[in-house]
């Protein structure tokens, strides 16, 4: 029986995961189809229930469902439990296991961003959703001593800080209100800026005016499609070092692939598929993802 793996999100059309995973399945002779399922929050529980069927190897979960998926699976791995967010699901018989491979992907991206410099100890994080949680967990694990989280709705950043309470007891983890003057003051004191909001995913929005960016920051935008967001262009103009979310996508995807198949991921092939999709631009990459997803892309 041909197996199925699905990406559950809302929206999913921007995703390059279909192109990357389908090429990986095909190259290893794994008879599986990667499908894109656009599901609203109201449809999430039914979608998760559906993947308990024998034909499913598992799933990816993306914006905005990573936190809401936590109570819908039967077991959480340590990282999914610690972050309170699930981006990958595997099956153990009829039981579903929630994983968080964003953490591993983020740590690879952070290492690339920092390069040969000494690992910094201070960061500003924009966003407190599922991606923001993986980022903050990765920063704590990396030994950061001060991390400030800004979120449009402050209560969500405060919930994140409470969630990490014990694991962040040795350092300063703070939630702050999204005011430009406060963001500017914090950026002046930090070394690393990470955008874990969906600003830039559609349209050409920036999170704050370009003038707030000091030079010599290390800036990571989790958004990978489009590959160069307004934030990253502003940061380059300010003299900052920048990286988009593609490397994180690749490595979270590689970890998920191994969890579903038990096989090492063909990293180079997956990377070249991502590059190919990027080269043809947003329109083309959607088409590639849809092609990879076959008829199910229309669901
Ligand atoms: P999520 O759980 O739905 O969280 C979305 C976040 O974006 C929240 O913090 C939300 O703030 C914020 N946001 C949305 N629209 C905003 C706006 N107009 N102004 C200010 N803040 C806004 O989604 P997620 O899973 O964390 O994903 C967030 C982004 O990270 C997406 O672009 C996703 O593609 C990217 N991501 C990339 C990777 C990768 O591998 N490269 C991995 C994970 C995530 P509120 O709470 O105030 O609504």
Features:
single chain, 299 residues, alpha/beta, Rossmann fold, 2 domains, 6-stranded mixed beta sheet, 40% helix, globular, disordered C terminus, binds NADP nicotinamide-adenine-dinucleotide phosphate
Describe this protein's structure.
The chain has 299 residues and is an alpha/beta fold. The chain has helices spanning 17-27, 44-50, 78-83, 102-114, 130-142, 154-163, 180-189, 230-237, 246-261, 267-279, 281-293; strands at 3-9, 32-38, 56-61, 75-76, 88-92, 95-99, 122-126, 146-151, 172-177, 192-195, 218-221, 241-243. It has a 6-stranded mixed beta sheet. A 6-stranded parallel beta sheet has the order 9-8-7-10-11-12, with helices on both faces. The model is unreliable at 282-299 (pLDDT under 50). It binds NADP nicotinamide-adenine-dinucleotide phosphate (NAP). NADP nicotinamide-adenine-dinucleotide phosphate (NAP) binds at residues 62-64, 66, 102, 105, 127-132, 151-153, 156, 196-199, 201, 222-224, 245, 248-249, 252. The site of NADP nicotinamide-adenine-dinucleotide phosphate (NAP) has 28 residues, from α4, α5 and α9.
């Amino acid at each position: 029986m041909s197996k199925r793996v699905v990406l559950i999100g809302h929206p999913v059309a921007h995703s390059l995961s279909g192109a990357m995973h389908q090429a990986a399945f095909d190259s290893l002779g794994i008879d599986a189809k990667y499908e894109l399922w656009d599901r609203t929050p109201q449809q999430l529980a039914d979608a998760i229930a559906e993947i308990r069927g024998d034909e499913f190897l598992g799933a990816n979960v993306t914006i905005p469902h990573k936190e809401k998926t936590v109570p819908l699976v039967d077991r959480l791995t340590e990282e999914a439990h610690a972050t309170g967010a699930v981006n990958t699901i595997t099956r153990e018989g009829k039981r579903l296991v929630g994983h968080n491979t964003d953490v591993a992907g983020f740590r690879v991206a952070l290492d690339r961003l920092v390069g040969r410099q000494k690992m910094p100890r201070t960061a500003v994080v924009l966003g407190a959703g599922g991606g923001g949680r993986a980022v903050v967990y990765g920063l704590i694990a990396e030994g950061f001593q001060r991390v400030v989280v800004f979120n449009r709705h402050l209560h969500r950043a405060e919930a994140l800080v409470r969630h990490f309470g014990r694991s962040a007891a040795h350092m300063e983890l703070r939630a702050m209100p999204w005011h430009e003057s406060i963001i500017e003051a914090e950026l002046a004191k930090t070394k690393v800026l990470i955008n874990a909001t969906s600003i830039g995913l559609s349209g050409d929005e920036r999170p704050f005016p370009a003038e707030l960016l000091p030079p010599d920051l290390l800036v990571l935008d989790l958004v990978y499609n489009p590959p160069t967001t307004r934030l990253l262009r502003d940061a380059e103009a300010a003299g900052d070092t920048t990286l988009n979310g593609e490397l994180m996508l690749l490595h979270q995807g590689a970890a998920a692939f191994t969890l579903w198949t038990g096989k090492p991921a063909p990293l180079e092939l997956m990377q070249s598929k991502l590059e190919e999709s990027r080269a043809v631009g947003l329109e083309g990459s959607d088409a590639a993802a849809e092609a990879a997803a076959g008829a199910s892309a229309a669901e």
